Amino acid sequence: MRFSTLEQLAKLCTEEHLSIGRMMLREQAAESGMAEEAVFRQMADYYGIMKEAVERGLTEDTRSRSGLTGGDARKVMEYGAGPGASSNLGGDAGRAMAYALAVSEVNASMGRIVATPTAGSCGIIPGVFVSTQERFGYDDEAMTYALFASGAIGFVIANNSFISGAEGGCQAEVGSAIGMAAGALTELRGGTPEQAIHAVGLALKNSLGLICDPVGGLVEIPCIVRNGFGAVTALAAADMALAGVRSVIPSDEVVQVMLEVGSAMPDGHRETAKGGLAQTPTGRAIMRQLYGKGQGDGATE
How many Å apart are CA 82 and CA 3, to the nearest integer? Predict the structure, then answer.
C-alpha cells in the first residue's frame, strides 16, 4: 500500500482526485495482483453476506448455543424502528442499532458473518451500511465502494495500533469498527477524504479505554449490545464531520493513543474473562452455570 497513515491516505486521495473507496480498490488490486473487477466482485459478495446476516437476525431464531443471548434485535426493531415508533433515537438510528444487534446475534448463534474488522464487532458496519442504503437508496455499487473505504481505514488502524480485543481491549474491536463505519459513511454521504478522516478520529476518541470483558469468555455479553451502541455512535461521528466538526487531535495521533492505552491495559481487561463484567457476581455465576462448579471464582486481575 502507498499509505500507512490516515493523513497519507487523505493526501493521496486529494492529489489523485479519488475517493477513499476507489483508492483502496486500486491499491488492493495492485497488492494482490488481481484485476480491479475481480477485487470489486469479492467485496460486493461480502456486502451481500452482510445483508443476509441482517435479514437472518431479524427473521430467524438467533438464540446462542449458550442460551444467554438472542432475539434482542427484533425487540429493538419492533420498539424503535417499526411503523409509528416513537423511540428516543427515532426510526433511522433505531434501525441501524437493530441491524447491528441482528448481525452480532447471528454471529453468537454460529451463523455466517463478515468480520469487520473482527467477529466481535461484526454488526457495526452492516448496521450502519444497510440502514443507510435503505434510507437513502444507494445501490450496491456505492455500498461496495464504502466497504473499500472502511477497509482502508481499518488497514491503517490495524498496522498502527490494534483491532484485536485480546491485544488492546474492546476499543480495538468495537472502537475500530465505529471509526471504520464513521469514516466510510462520511464519504458515502458526500464528505471529502479529509472530513472522512476527521470522522475516524472523532469516533475513536469516544471509545478510548473500552475494555474487553466477555462474560464466560463468549462473544455475547456485553459484545452484542456494544455493537448496537457502536452503530449509533458511528452515525453521530459522521454527522459531526459532515457538519464541519474536526478532530482537534489528529486522527493518526488518536490511533497512537489507542495503542498506548491498549498496551497499558491489565490482562484482566483484554478478553480473558478475568476482569470487568465477567468477574461481577452475576458474571461468575453465569460462568459456573456454563462450565460447572469451581469456574468463575478466580480473583480479578
Answer: 43
pLDDT, tens only, 108-138: 999 999 999 999 999 999 999 999 999 999 9
Average pLDDT over residues 212-219: 97
Instruction: For residue 83, say if its preceding peptide bond is cis, omega within 30 degrees of 0.
Output: no
Interior angle at CA 218, CA 215 and CA 221, nearest 5: 50
**Contact, 161 vs 271, CB < 8 A?**
no
pTM for this model (two decimals)? 0.96
What are residue 76's DSSP bridge partners? none
Helix (H, G, I), strand (E, B) or coil at 12: helix
Per-residue pLDDT tens for 87-102?
A: 999 999 999 999 999 9
Cα R_g (the chain), whole angstroms: 19
Annotated domain spans of the chain:
6-265
> Looking at the DSSP assignment, which residues form a beta bridge with residue 212?
270
**Cα 299 to Cα 99, 167, 210, 216, distances in angstroms:** 36, 21, 21, 14
Task: Say if domain 6-265 classifies as CATH 1.10.10.
Answer: no
Nearest to 61 by CA among 28, 21, 23, 102: 102
Most distant CA pair in the chain: distance in Å? 62
The answer to whether residues 267 and 300 touch, using CB atoms and an 8 Å cutoff, is no
> Residue 161: pLDDT above 80?
yes
The HSE-up count of residue 256 (CA atoms within 13 Å, CB side) is 8
Q: What is the DSSP letter of 268?
A: G
Mean pLDDT over residues 57-79, rounded?
96
> Which bin fits 63, alpha (ψ -120 to 50), beta or left (φ > 0)?
beta
* 246-268 confidence digits (pLDDT tens): 999 999 999 999 999 999 999 99
* Grid cell locating 118: 473482527
The total number of residues shown for the chain amounts to: 301
